[in-house]
Amino acid sequence: MTEIVQQPRIVKMLNQRAHDLLLGHNFAHQQIGFIHTLEMDYGEPLKQRTLLEVEVAAQQKRKLKSTAHHKYRAAASEQLHKAIEKMMSKQLSDIDSVIQNTIGVEDSVCAMLDILATKSASVGRLEPLVNDLSWLGRELVTLVNLPYYRNQRSKNTAVKVDSPALALRYIGLDNLQLVVPTFAVRHWMPYSTEPFSLLKRRLKESTMANAIAAQKIAEVNEVNPSHAFTLGMLLNVGQIALVRLYLKVFEQIWQRKVQFARTTANKGLHTALLELKPDPLFLTTLLSEQSLAISAKIIEKMAFKYLPFNSVMQQLVNGVEKGDTALPLTQVMLKARCYSQYLTLKQHQLVEPDETLSWFSYFKFTKKELKALQASNFNNLAIQID
User: Fold this and answer.
1) I want to staple 229 with a disulfide (CB 3.0 to 4.6 A). Which of 23, 30, 130, 215 is the partner?
2) Where do the DSSP E strands lie in 39-161?
3) What number is the average pLDDT over the span 50-79?
4) What pTM, to 2 d.p., does this model score?
5) Dihedrals φ, ψ of 185, to 5°?
């Protein structure tokens, strides 16, 4: 009984820890409660002169001033983030605008993903859509011209490819089911995630790991692996939206408040604002509490005809209703997200063996699934170009 009660708490804790790690290794450690200290042994304690009375008074004055400044800065940050939260809430209520203006999802991408999910898919149907997406055309041409893939092709065809149409034919439909969603999600990633310097890279890595884990688990359970991979890539689109939106809104409101403080000659407020940066605690809370629901709304707006994602996303967001059972693809996605989070936490030594055991037990991983996952490469797409 105790184990049954503890497992959901451990799962929730590790999910939050994985979100914390996106924003930085040190931040994740701080959230766990680790205190980093540098213990230095100087042997005999050094003799210190007695402070003069005037120095004691000056020290206390500086301490009071510093405490007052920290309180002022905390108040300024609270007011700033109240305004940010209000603006973000307003913008997130218009998902169409988030899709178009914040992430930049083109209709042609959604159409391509849908076509690739059908048995009638053909390069001819994809070609005009790729022609509408210059960035995707460039990515495909670059991919087939990589030395690794040029060497895979026969000597007679190992020439440099210079057109998206030819690149499509070389890559082939089976590979495109992996390549198109991967390139699309990479294209939607934020250009910069400063001051969280590693956030962009970790978003990419966790998304790729999630998609590959979903594909491998689906293969073991005879669920459509292409559907699983595509949804695995799209699952983090809510994180992408929230990161981009938060950093953009922070900058807008911060600039506005700095200008106000400067105009009104409020030196204290101006100084406090200049010290403020995007808050990792605010962002990690956003990601853990809202990203999955935002992903579900975005995927629904993509209006896929042939990709059965909406029911799965509703189960992921709301849980499985009493009396119902989780859809096979829902079960795949739950396990894939768990395993991709496990990989990154393990890499940074932020998950214990007993936590892992409880985590995997909660999601009912089978030995066959774990064996397939342990043998997988989560860094690169496993494709062959003939």
Assistant:
1) 215
2) none
3) 64
4) 0.88
5) -65, -35
